Every structure is written in structure tokens, then in C-alpha cells.
Amino acid sequence: MRPASDALIVIDVQNDFCPGGALAVAGGDAIVPRINALMADFPVRVLTQDWHPADHASFAANHPGATAFSEVDMPYGRQVLWPTHCVQGTPGSAFHPMLATDAADLILRKGFRAAIDSYSAFFENDRTTPTGLEGYLRTRGVTRLTLCGLATDYCVAFSALDAARLGFAVTVLTGACRAIDLNGSMAAMDAAMRAAGVALEP
């Protein structure tokens, strides 16, 4: 078991991000066995869950004439318009059935504000509205984070960058993640994480 100051943050391992889902990440289900094994080694384990209302502003379907994966300007910046996914209470929003959710100390839902998307486990996409995760980890005495899950170049990377900005020591286990890689997003976020001091390990 790792020290009490270590936490595992498992990002969005949900049906809609796995093969057959509305926003499937190639091989997204393949990481589940490794994540389950990792959970036994960490004293603090957090699962995040994308949890969108049906009228969420990031859904292309809510922008007449827009196509999925196009971009629009939002008050908080550029926003990719996604296929409708992880709608609250739907089968797609549920965790992958093989994920060992009982091992979690905390399940953090994000993206539930209709007007703003939330990639990071720490902040909404305005980069200022907090999810509360930082406070939870601080009160648990956590200083080191290991991240895994879906997708590497969006929710995992944004979480890692915010965690580093908040002063946590951060490692991303790239072998326990899978990427969307939209228009070169993986290379860009790989470089951003390295520049922020995030350790990238297999």
C-alpha cells in the first residue's frame, strides 16, 4: 500500500466513453482491469463521473445546425461540441460494469451545470469554478496524485494540469488511459503536461 498522502484519481470510465458508447474512445474498456488492480494499492481512491443534463451547452444537438466535433465560442472560451453523452441517469452515464466502483472513497460528478462544460476533476472549463475535489484531497492529507482513465487528451489532461497548478505532485499513467486525439489534441496535451511538470509513466 502506498503512503496515506497518495491518491488515485480515476477519470470518467463510463459506458458512453467505452466501445459502443455515444462518445466512444478506442480501447476505452481495455484499461479497466489495470485500474481495478491499481485501486488496491492506494489509500485514497476517487472516481469522477461525467454527469450532464440533456440540455447541456456542449452538446452539438443543442446548437441548431451544428455538427459534432465542431467548435463554438462560449463565455469561457472555445468549446468543442460533442455528441450527446453521459446524460444524467442514462445507461451511458453509468460506470463501466467491470469497474470496481465499491473501492472508491469518493465519486465526484462533474459537468452538471448546463451552461458550462467540465473536463477537469478540479474546475469547470472557466478554470475558476471549483468542483470541491481539491478541498477533499487536502483534508485527507493528500499531496501526490496518480491519474488514469478517459480520455487522456481531455478530462485526464485537464485534471492533471489543474492538479499541478494547485501544487500537487502529479503522475499520469498513460497505459491506463486512452485518447480521443481530435485534431492533434494528444500531442498538444502531452506537451502541455510535460511542461507543467506532470510525470508521464507507462
Helix-strand pattern? EHEEEEHEHEHE
Distance between the termini: 20 Å
Helical amount:
10-25%
CA gyration radius, whole angstroms? 16 Å
Shape: globular
Report on the biggest sheet. 6 strands, parallel
Arithmetic mean pLDDT: 97
SS class:
alpha/beta
Strand % is: 15-25%
The spatial strand order of the largest sheet comes to 5-2-1-6-7-8
Low-confidence stretches: none
What is the number of helical segments per DSSP (H or I, 4+ residues)? 4
According to DSSP, the number of beta strands is 8
Question: What keywords describe this structure?
Answer:
202 residues, alpha/beta, 6-stranded parallel β-sheet, two-stranded antiparallel ribbon, 8 strands
Descriptive account of the structure:
It is built from four helices and eight strands. It is of the alpha/beta class and 202 residues long. A six-stranded parallel β-sheet has the order 5-2-1-6-7-8, with helices on both faces. The longest helix has 14 residues, at 152-165. 43% of the residues are buried. The model has no long low-confidence stretch (mean pLDDT 97).
